[in-house]
User: Which sequence fits this backbone?
């Protein structure tokens, strides 16, 4: 009898130890947000995980995988390999492609760089999966594409009470602007369904790494904001028209055209100025056009 009690006590202790190992490991984790491209550039991607409980720093035993619309052809996005330092509830782990840093302010510093990005053919419908290295425990699924996704939607009970993340989010991963697909719940929340839990961020995504530094996603600079000016002047006797623009976006290319043709591309300097001399013009009236901002200026050569 005493031996049986000891054996039962040992079994209970093992179960408690297993539960403790799960609670202080990497299992209790959300896929908090995903951005699969910025202004159409799908080489700029990021995935942000968030800890549902303290102590989820031992992610060296985990990986992120993308699957296609049928839930097949898995692509390993990152096999973490090492752990992270900060492990309070709500702390993040940021994974990104190398090019993502050129699309954020300040330049993004990821915790891990993607080994492979999410393939373009997976962006309309598929799943992003957080799982253990062996692939035997699917801890979180973010499936998207609505009815276009026909693959599995199940996982463990660690982060979803019924172990089913369906139905998928009814939309594609965002690529055309600066938004992310964002989990709307609190840090401690489990999944209910992907459709209920996720929505587009509605504004520029803000990404946070494990060091708790934040980075705002920025699109390509706009060519024109309404402050640009254009002037045209004919240098009499030299048959030259000098076109000059001010208040343009430094480093951005702009087109200047004379009389609807003879177009040249000029890059705005660090003071926002573009300038060109059109030589060999005939006497009479001429019009300079700045294409992107829709500006025109006329002058007369005599």
Assistant:
């Amino acid at each position: 009898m005493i031996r049986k009690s000891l054996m039962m006590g040992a079994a209970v202790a093992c179960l408690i130890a297993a539960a403790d190992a799960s609670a202080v490991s990497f299992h209790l984790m959300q896929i908090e947000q995903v951005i699969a491209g910025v202004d159409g550039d799908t080489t700029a991607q990021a995935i942000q995980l968030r800890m549902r409980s303290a102590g989820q720093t031992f992610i060296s035993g985990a990986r992120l995988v993308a699957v296609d619309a049928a839930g097949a052809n898995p692509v390993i996005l990152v096999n973490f390999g090492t752990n992270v330092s900060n492990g309070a509830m709500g702390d993040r782990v940021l994974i990104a492609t190398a090019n993502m840093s050129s699309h954020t302010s300040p330049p993004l510093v990821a915790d891990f760089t993607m080994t492979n990005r999410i393939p373009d053919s997976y962006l309309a419908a598929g799943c992003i999966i957080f799982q253990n290295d062996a692939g035997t425990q699917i801890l979180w699924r973010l499936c998207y594409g609505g009815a276009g996704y026909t693959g599995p939607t199940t996982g463990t009970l660690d982060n979803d009470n019924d172990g089913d993340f369906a139905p998928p989010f009814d939309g594609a991963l965002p690529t055309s602007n600066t938004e992310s697909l964002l989990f709307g719940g609190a840090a401690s929340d489990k999944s209910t369904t992907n459709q209920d839990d996720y929505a587009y961020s509605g504004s520029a995504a803000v990404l946070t790494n494990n060091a708790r530094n934040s980075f705002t996603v920025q699109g390509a600079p706009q060519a024109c904001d309404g402050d640009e000016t254009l002037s045209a002047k004919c240098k009499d006797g030299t048959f030259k028209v000098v076109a000059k623009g001010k208040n343009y976006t430094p480093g951005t290319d702009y087109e200047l055209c004379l009389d609807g043709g003879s177009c040249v591309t000029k890059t705005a300097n660090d003071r926002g100025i573009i300038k060109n001399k059109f030589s060999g013009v005939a006497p009479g009236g001429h019009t300079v056009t700045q294409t992107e901002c829709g500006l025109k200026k006329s002058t007369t050569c005599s």
About this structure: The two ends are 117 Å apart (CA to CA). The chain has two helices and 20 strands. The domain at 27-217 is CATH 2.60.40.1260 (Immunoglobulin-like). The helical segments are 2-23, 194-197.
